[in-house]
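hey can u check if this looks right to u? its 128 residues, i copy pasted from the old doc so theres a chance i mangled smth
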Amino acid sequence: MCAQFNQLILDVADLTRSVGFYVGLLNLELCETSRVDGHELAMLRSGGLRVLLIQQPDELPPLPAERQPGVVMSFEVLNMQHTLAKCNAAGTTVLRGMERSTTGEATVLLADPDGYPVLLSGRTELVH
């Protein structure tokens, strides 16, 4: 039996800001928040995917940049235009603007508050 994906764990600089992005803009479910040994934690869910956000205690040094490459989260959204409008209003950084295929699929690459790339995909009107 192969290993099964359990959850994505992200170290974040500001837990409140990150929860606002994932819950407020992308509509992930906030399952619980807790504090363990100075670490602020938030467990989120999107369908079967669990995302654990961790804000390290202030006395710990920030994570090195080389620990973060290669992580891209992908979310399918039901209403791309509505989601993008919410993200733009919140000042979310767009890494790659909307690209549409002739089949009606659209993708946009955003940055979350800690710079992690977030790929949004969803249906749009067909291009004729």
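The CA atoms of residues 99 and 107 lie 5 Å apart.
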